[in-house]
Amino acid sequence: MTFMAVILLFIFFVLFFLYFWGLNPHMITVFYLPEQSLTYPAAMIVVFCVIAGLTLGFGAHVYSTVSQWMKRWGRDRSEKKQREISAIYREGVGRLLSGDLKKARVLLNKALDRDPKRVDTLIALASLANQEGNHTEGLERLSKAGEIDPKSMEVLFKTAAIQEETGQDEDAIASYQGLLVLEKDNRKALRSLRDLYIKHNRWQDALESQRQVLKAGPGANRVAEEKEMLLFLCYEVARQKISDGSAKEAKSELKDILRQKADFTPAQVTLGDAYAAMGQGDDAVKTWQEGYKKLGKGVFLERLEDYFMEREDPSSLLNFFRGLVIEQGDDLVFRLFYGKLCLRLEMVDEAKEQLQAVESSGVESSQVHLLLAETYRRCNESEQAINEYQKALGISKRLHLNFVCEKCQHITPEWNSRCPACGEWNTTSLVDRKVIQEARPLALDKMVIHHGEQVEWEGA
C-alpha cells in the first residue's frame, strides 16, 4: 500500500468519525467496577472498539505468522539434521555389509550420538556387535531400541534370534511370546516358538503353537506340510502320555493318527507299546505283526523279538517267523531278522541259511557280514568267519585306513585336500587320530602280553 493511499484512508476515516459523531452527540457511561465508570461520546467508544478489534486481529495475525515461521524453521532444521544423520547411517550400514566393522562402528556411533533415539541405528549397532561375537552388547542395544519403540517387530525378532544363537532359549521363547502379543497370527514367530518347544521336548506347547500356525492360515504351498507337522506333534504328545502313565488316552490318539496317516510307522509301533503298557500283550503283538505285514519295517520285528525274549517265550516268535517264511521269502529284511533270531537262539544252521540268502542277493552290509561272521565262528568255520569279519570292518588286503573330515565327520577311503562333503580345506585326517595321539604308551620296562601277565622288559 502506497503512502498516498494511507493518507486518503486516514482522511476517509476522520470524515467518517466526524459524521458519525454528528449523528450521535450524546454521552455514554460505561461501568468497569461497581463504583467506577467512564463517560465518553458514543462515537468515540465505537471507534475505540473498532481500533481495539483491528489491533487484536493484527496481533493474532502477527503471532500466527511468526509461529508458523518458527515451526517451519524448526522443521527444516530437523529435516536437515535427519538427512545428515541418515547419510551417516547409510554409510555405516554400507560399511557393515562390506565387512568393514571398525569404520561401521565409528559411523553408526556418530549417528547415534546425534540422535540417541533412532531405532534403526541401534538395530544396526546390535547387528555389528553380533558379528563381532559380542552378543551381550547386541542384546543391550536391542533392549534400548525396545524401550524407545516397544512395538517394533524387527527389534523383537532380532532379539530372539541372538538369544537362540547364544543358547538363551527361555528368553527367546519370551521374546517370541511378546511378538505374538503384538501380532497373534505372526506365522514366523509361531513357527520359531514351535521349533524351540520341539528342541526342548515340550510337545504339548509345540502342538498348541502348531495349531495356531494352521489357524493363522499358512500359504497354500505349505498347508500339507503344516498339517503333517501337526500329526507328528500329536504323535509325540501321545508317546509322552505313555511315559506319564496315560497309555489308554495315548492309545485313542494313536489310532486317530493312523486313521489319518496309515503308513506312519512310529504311530503303529507306539500303539503296540501302548497296548503293552496297558498289559494287553496279545493286542501289542497283533499290532506289531500287522504293522510289519503292512509296512515292512524291521522295527516291528525287533519289537516282537524283544517282547517274546523278555517273556522267555521264543517259540511263539519262531512260529510267527516260520509261518511267514513262504509268504515273505523274497523279503530280505525279514530273512535278516529271522537269521539274527536263530543265531540268538543258537539255531546256527537255520541262521546260516537265512543270512547266506541275504548275502547271496548282493547285499553289502557290515551288519550282515558281522552276523554271518559270528555264525561261521559258531560253526567252527574259521576261514569264512575271518573273511566276513574283514568285510564287516572294511579291512582290505593292504589293511586300508579311512580318513575323516574333522569339521563334518564325512569318512572317505582316501585322503583329500578338500572335503568332498562340506568343501572345507585342510580338515581331513586319519580316523581316530586325536584318540591315538592323546594316548600314552606303556612304560618300556613293562609289557602286557596276551594272557594278561606283566613281564620285565629285557632290552639290550
Biggest sheet layout: 3 strands, antiparallel
Strand order of the largest sheet: 4-3-5
N to C succession of SSEs: HEEHHHHHHHHHHHHHHHHHHEEEHEE
**Which band does the percent of strand residues land in?**
5-15%
Radius of gyration: 44 Å
Low-confidence stretches: 454-460
Helical segment count? 20
- What does the oligomeric state look like here? single chain
Class based on secondary structure composition and strand pairing: mainly alpha
Helix % is 55-70%
Extended strand count = 7
Shape: elongated
The N- and C-terminal alpha carbons lie at a distance of 128 Å
- If you average the pLDDT, what whole number results? 85
Report on the structure:
The chain contains 20 helices and seven strands. With 460 residues, it is mainly alpha-helical. Among the domains are: 14-75, no CATH class; 401-455, no CATH class. The strands form three sheets. Strands 4-3-5 form a three-stranded antiparallel sheet, with no helix packed on it. Strands 1-2 form a two-stranded antiparallel sheet. A hairpin with a 2-residue loop joins strand 1 (27-33) and strand 2 (36-41). Helix 6 (153-165) packs antiparallel against helix 7 (169-182), helix 9 (203-216) runs antiparallel to helix 10 and helix 14 (298-310) runs parallel beside helix 16. The longest helix has 57 residues, at 42-98.
